[in-house]
Amino acid sequence: MQLQTVLHRRFRGERGAEFVYVASSAAILGVDAATGAVVDAFAVPGGRDQDAWIADQADRELAESTLHDLVDLGVVRPVGESPAPRATLPPMPFPLATLVLNVTNKCNLTCTYCYEYGEDRLTAGDGSKGTGKPKMDDDTARQSIDFLMRSSGDRPQVSITFFGGETLLNFPAIRVATEYAEETAKSFKKRVHYSLTTNATLLTDEVVDFLTKHRFGITISIDGDQQDQDRHRKFQKGVGSFDVIEPRIRHLLVTNKERKGRSIGARVTLTSGAAPVPHTYRFLTQELGFDEVGFAPVTAGLGRDYALGEKGYQKLLREFGELAEDYVAAALRNETHGFANLGDLLRELHQGVNKAHPCGAGLGLLGVSTEGELGLCHRFVESKSHSVGTVTTGIDEATRTAFLTQAHIDNKTDCTQCFARPLCAGGCYHEAHVRYGDATVANLHYCEWIRGFIDLGLRTYGRILEANPKFFARFES
Amino acid sequence: MSNVPNDPDVPPRRPTPRILACNQKARQLAALVLAQRGQARALTQDPPPTQYPYGCTTIFAPGWEVDSGNGTHGLCQPIERDLYDCYHTCYWPAQVPDGVTNSPKWTMSCGAPMQDWKSIDLVFP
Ligand code: SF4
Ligand code: SF4
């Protein structure tokens, strides 16, 4: 029989241990040198005849049993084997887990790269003066909570995320929604987890008190030290925002620590010209006291001066690699490290996550506009093209199912030969919508970056596994 | 896959001496593989299996005309009934339409096969 190694990625630890990441199952197998050689031997176009190959081996019995094991574990398979049945959608209507409330589409900053303001925005009008209501009213906030409770099936826990614009420009709606959710959750016997993203300009004592009391998961958008922050994150008059946010962030972090709140993360938008990632990481964790930091390359149309060119992405990968060294060092001491991108990736790798859809948008997660309209996620809420209902009338299930069916990884033929598929699954719908005008297509302009990053994750995984396998127990549920 | 107990509840870290199941998915996969090992076996194997699967198609026989003992006594009796028995009970997918998934109504038009077997329609796959 003709056998062939399936789509996979080989990687090594530092001390020579060899691994295989199997793309069809997202399994990670450690292999000895002989087994690794078998994996490689069958990884040839058209495959190999198993009998002929076995006959050629010095130890035929060993060769045969190794091959047999690899076939059983799905690493080597018969050529032309009919593909496994296509994973269908989970039973619909899929219960919601998270609702993102865009409580305002106004902002007090005018970050040059923002999708609400820049040329890439989806909203008609000009951002802060967009067509929708600028703020969500209290009724809509309460209706959103009712909607979430109704639409989350028997999930014992739901999440409410507040988003904007600058979220805190509508603190009253956040307060109303939170207090109302607290009440409603009791009758539905659910726990509620709250989170919010803010630019920190409006973190007054009152706000900080409220957020920490309700154990909010808080993410602060900040680009780094003063120079990096003030480069793009400016007030309308062009003044940088660092001096305003710094004391507020410090106050938040201290209060949150006292109250033993959830960890607070910084979210950094990476543009060309930004300081090296390890520098920014150290500044935000050591100087300011953030628990974790996530980095996101800017979403930008081609030709913007802040866009990361190909060189920019290569540089970024190198810097991620440098910061990964810190992560490994911490992991070997059995400590958590706050490099959120890598931590999340390692978690997914360890669990063996294998995605049919890139993210939860439209599935477990929906966004709500200021007017109560439902979108696939917070970024889509103003885009009429992907409306999936309203909080009062409920989800338009036909549209939702049609979108998810179309956006399934099996329809992204460009991704069939990509080892990163189990984790990337084609990437962000919103990004695809902006870039290609079709939210269901693969983000092929990102592939190299994604594969480079996942490769870094695999190598890091291998190194930690070699030296301190216990570390990964924290990722097991 | 010898050094791990054949128990799907024990996550096998090492499905074989040469392969280590590292992440959670690999462990689940290895547990599944181990649990299913030995389940599929040739009926001519020594010692022979103690349980036989249901249906004539699962018994190794050189063909439809004779049974595993080279006789006809193990076939449906009389053998003319094969048409119906294969269709209804045994699910013989190659020779007759299968009544399980594809052609559940195949023989509906035929009330008394001795007289009107010609009314059974053709099935085009
Ligand atoms: S979008 Fe690119 S990196 Fe992502 S799965 Fe598809 S081919 Fe791979
Ligand atoms: S579509 Fe993009 S922005 Fe929206 S939830 Fe998914 S990954 Fe995030």
Please provide a written account of the structure.
The complex is a heterodimer of chains A (477) and B (125). Chain A is of the alpha/beta class and 477 residues long. Chain A folds into two domains: 2-85; 98-374, TIM Barrel. Chain A has helices at residues 33-41, 50-56, 60-72, 138-151, 171-188, 205-213, 226-232, 242-258, 277-288, 310-332, 340-351, 397-406, 421-424, 429-436, 447-467, and strands at 2-5, 8-12, 18-22, 27-31, 48-49, 76-78, 98-102, 157-163, 191-198, 217-221, 265-270, 292-297, 365-368, 373-375, 387-390, 394-395. In chain A, the strands form three sheets. Chain A has a ten-stranded mixed sheet with strand order 12-11-10-9-8-7-13-14-15-16. A three-stranded antiparallel sheet of chain A has the order 5-1-6. A three-stranded antiparallel sheet of chain A has the order 2-3-4. In chain A, a hairpin with a 3-residue loop joins strand 15 and strand 16. In chain A, helix 4 runs parallel beside helix 5. Chain A is globular, with a radius of gyration of 24 Å. The model of chain B is unreliable at 1-10 (pLDDT under 50). Chain B has three helices and one strand; from the N terminus they run E-H-H-H. Chain A binds chain B through residues 19, 25-32, 34-35, 65-66, 69-70, 72-74, 349-352, 354, 461, 465, 472, 476, and chain B through 1, 15-16, 18-26, 28-30, 33, 37. Residues 414-415, 418, 420-421, 424, 426-427, 442-444, 447, 450-451 of chain A line the site of one iron/sulfur cluster (SF4).
